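Quick one, T. Sequence first:
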Amino acid sequence: MQIPLYQIDAFTDRLFAGNPAAVCLLDHWLADATLLSIAAENNLSETAFLVRQGEDYALRWFTPTVEVDLCGHATLASAHLILDRLEPGRGSVAFHTQKAGVLTVSRRDGWLSMDFPARPPKPTLHLPQLAEALGREPFCVLKARDLMAVFDSPEDVVQLTPDFAAIAALDCWAVIATAPGRDGIDFVSRFFAPGHGVPEDPVTGSAHCTLVPYWAKRLGKTDLLARQVSARGGTLHCQLAGDRVILAGQAILYLEGRITVPD
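Structure tokens:
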């Protein structure tokens, strides 16, 4: 069986930046073990799998080791593929997911805007092992799906030297590190999920479902410009809209081909 595969850099307008995602177009769902094997072979932080569902698409995401409940950059990559390459006449596309509901992506002024559920964080107990794992003591720690360590300055986040084994041993899905931004950037972040095959994710849309409610409340504004300060880096235009988060980014196609798997 041959499956179309695309690799797309998301949350960037140029190649070799942002977060690369693989997108596979399927006629029907394959066994979960096969999907996971494809994602492991791709060895990117996420592989998205799409199956046509009327005018919409069913969507699932896999890291090299597990299926995930929500992924921003692979959703953006999937929307870019559909709206820019496969069906350029469309202005929006809806993705049906198992755990995040229906996610709609719309084209707006050269950007793709994703409508995601908000995941506001709550304060949690002091965790000295988190500071040890990150190599720096945070200003405060909160938790939603992920632990979120808040620091005082963007330099604090950029200069983190995380111990990935120690982060993987924490009782959480992943760790977000964040701080106020400067020079027009409202906040910065990094994201670590070594226990799920992603030591550091270059740009993480799902993390912003937690970051945006926090920074919107702290800064007293609902429209925010975010920068993920990984080595590749990426920019997100963010908006808090009630219990939803609107994340806008750009993407660019890097690779197109076919993979061969057993029938």
